[in-house]
Amino acid sequence: MPVGTARLVVRLAKENPTWGYRRIHGELVGMGIRLAPSSVWAILKRHGIEPSPTRSGPNWSEFLRAQTSTLLACDFFSVDTVLLRRLYVLFFIEHGSRKVHVAGVTASPTGTWVTQQARQLAWTLRERSVPARWLLRDRDAKFTAAFDEVFRTEDIEIIRTPVRAPPANAVAERFVGTVRRECLDRMIILGRRHLVAVLGEFVDHYNTHRPHRTLGQAAPCQPRPVELNAAAHFGHVARTDRLGGVIHEYFLMA
Q: pLDDT at position 20, please?
């Protein structure tokens, strides 16, 4: 089979996502190109091109990127204290700004408790300049029907990730990795009150100072400053310590 014919089949498939292999075959016949329908199907399969119903819609990554400014995600992570008591943290993260909201910390994350935290967050979301439209969550049993209803009353649609698919909620999972590496793995947590204080300090750092590659190295709640000649100001850099020196923040002095 000529290489040009295979390239043309791939081109037609990519430019016309609703076309199946039979429709592509018909277009080729109309141009005088003789090729068996099974050959068109084989070419598409060899190049990893899905059948038209799958190809016609956006994939998961494309959907998330398209909805980023109106998409929230939520998840849990656990922390063990020095006395081996396990605490659970419920948090929400805004996909567009990467701003994190720690909803609560508890040793008993019941459905009732989770729903109450959702109600409190819903009031905060009303202050957003761009209303939230979607909430991405996993299929944890703690996210009950009452939890979902809190957000539906705010016109926020619930999207459940596939079973056992952490990458589907990658933005939330990435925050969990960050808070562990940069904070929790470097500290001994004494109890719930201590964890609440530590997370409050870290999340403030995360939202107001820590750079994010997705945001062009700006912080979620802080615009990126005007670029300066760093060499000319090197001697005027000040450092602020957080959490007893676990976290360092640097600023150019005026």
A: 83
Q: What is the pLDDT, as a whole number, of residue 59?
A: 61
| Residue among 34, 242, 64 nearest 159 (CA) | 64
- Closest by CA position to 136, among listed 112, 172, 86, 176: 172
Rg (CA), the chain: 25
Two structure tokens written together for 41? 């199907």
CA distance 239 to 224: 18
Q: Helix 192-208 to helix 170-182 angle, to the nearest 10 degrees?
A: 110
**pLDDT, tens digit, 9 for 90 and up, residues 115-126:** 999 999 999 888
209/94 Cα distance (integer angstroms): 16
CA–CA gap between residue 28 and residue 183 (Å, rounded): 60
Predicted TM-score of the model (pTM): 0.74
DSSP letter, residue 223: P
E strand intervals along 51-204: 71-80, 86-94, 100-106, 134-137, 157-160
Distances from the Cα of 3 to the Cαs of 10, 43, 123, in angstroms? Answer: 11, 11, 59
Could you please state the CATH topology (level 3) that the domain comprising 62-215 is classified under.
Answer: Nucleotidyltransferase; domain 5 (3.30.420)
Question: What does the pLDDT read at residue 199?
Answer: 98
Please enumerate in sequence order all residues whose Cβ is within 8 A of that of 53, keeping only pairs 6 or more positions apart, or say none. Answer: none
Q: Do 198 and 189 touch, CB atoms closer than 8 A?
A: yes
Q: Which of these, 189, 227, 218, lies nearest to 107 by C-alpha position? A: 189
Instruction: Tell me how far apart the alpha carbons of residues 8 and 225 are, in angstroms, rounded to a whole number.
Output: 48
CA contacts within 13 A on the Cβ side of 241 = 4
